[in-house]
């Protein structure tokens, strides 16, 4: 068991965590701060104990609302954040920087925003191609030694990069996009994680809302919604993908659950070392997602779901060319930005 599992056990965390990004970043206008804080407070009251944020989200705004919402509850939660990718206030765009001095500075700033003296888990948000992974991980290891973080995580990295990283320091978790319609970790990363005793934390486990039926027309996306740049949500590809989704919706209806809950249960069936962290801007959906933690699927249903929304059935790559250039994750041959 890694320190991640130990911490989840310590705080009596359910098998599903909360990705906090949606409240401040990526999906249109940010949720007003009072509403975002209320959503996080209600999530805690529902039973969520694993909260995930990042320096990048909302240009640090997300860490601030998480810190305020969890004030007085710190010992009762597993709190994770990320470094190495941030919005540069002068350039007005995101910058990837994995230099040791940057990671240390960002960590210390995150601790202040999150109103805590330590983070349970701290991820390198993206691999900086200009900085060897050993240097970035070494810097995070020194933060462990200083007591500022409990464990090291990596995000959107390949199996080969993980193997290099664990030669430097233990890696408690790798965060990677993983869902019914994004199977990339199955290429090589899951095997590498299990080889290293590293948990796989699945972000966007609902396919950025697609698997929950939240996107039926590209026109409904706001101008600053990140899905506007993702080929799978284009006017050309989305209709095809929605037809594929009907299979999942039919199974969900037969089981009297939502398609989103079924998608989360499928991930949970992949093993206790696969931890979904869905996010939402809706308190009702946050509650719905948590309820999927009690849904166990039989082997026949898992096998049936395995055959749906496979890479050859999905139209469009998960990222556009610009975003694709920033990640280290293995890709399927079929994926084209």
UniProtKB/TrEMBL annotation:
Gene3D superfamilies: NADP-dependent oxidoreductase domain (3.20.20.100)
Top-level class of the enzyme under EC nomenclature: oxidoreductase
Native source organism of the sequence: Halomonas chromatireducens
Pfam families from the UniProt entry: Aldo_ket_red (PF00248)
Keyword terms, alphabetized: Oxidoreductase
GO cellular component terms, semicolon-separated: cytoplasm
All residue ranges annotated as the NADP-dependent oxidoreductase domain in the record: 15-308
Region of interest: Disordered: 318-337
Protein known as: General stress protein 69
Residue ranges with Acidic residues bias: 325-337
């Amino acid at each position: 068991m890694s320190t991640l599992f130990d911490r989840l056990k310590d705080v009596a965390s359910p098998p599903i965590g909360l990705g906090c990004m949606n409240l401040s970043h990526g999906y249109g206008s940010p949720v007003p701060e009072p509403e975002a804080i209320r959503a996080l407070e209600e999530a805690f009251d529902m039973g969520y104990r694993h909260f995930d944020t990042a320096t990048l989200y909302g240009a640090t705004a997300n860490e601030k609302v998480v810190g305020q919402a969890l004030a007085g509850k710190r010992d009762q939660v597993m709190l994770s954040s990320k470094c190495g990718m941030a919005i540069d206030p002068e350039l007005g765009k995101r910058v990837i920087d994995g230099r040791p001095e940057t990671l240390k500075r960002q960590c210390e700033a995150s601790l202040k925003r999150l109103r805590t003296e330590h983070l349970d888990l701290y991820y390198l948000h993206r691999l900086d191609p200009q900085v060897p992974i050993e240097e970035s991980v070494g810097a995070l290891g020194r933060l462990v030694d200083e007591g500022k973080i409990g464990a090291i995580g990596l995000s959107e990295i390949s199996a080969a990069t993980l193997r290099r990283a664990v030669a430097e320091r233990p890696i408690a978790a790798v965060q990677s996009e993983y869902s019914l319609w994004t199977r990339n970790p199955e290429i090589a990363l899951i095997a590498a994680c299990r080889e290293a005793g590293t948990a796989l934390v699945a972000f966007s486990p609902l396919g950025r809302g697609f698997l929950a039926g939240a996107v039926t027309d590209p026109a409904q996306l706001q101008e600053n919604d990140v899905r506007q740049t993702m080929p799978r949500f284009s006017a050309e590809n989305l209709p095809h993908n929605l037809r594929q989704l009907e299979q999942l919706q039919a199974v969900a209806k037969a089981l009297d659950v939502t398609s989103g809950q079924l998608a989360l249960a499928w991930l949970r069936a992949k093993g206790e070392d696969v931890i979904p962290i869905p996010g939402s801007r809706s308190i009702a959906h946050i509650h719905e997602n948590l309820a999927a933690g009690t849904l166990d699927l039989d082997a026949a249903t898992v096998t049936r779901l395995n055959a749906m929304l496979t890479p050859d059935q999905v139209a469009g790559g998960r990222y556009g060319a610009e975003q694709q250039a920033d990640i280290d994750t293995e890709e399927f041959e079929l994926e084209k930005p």
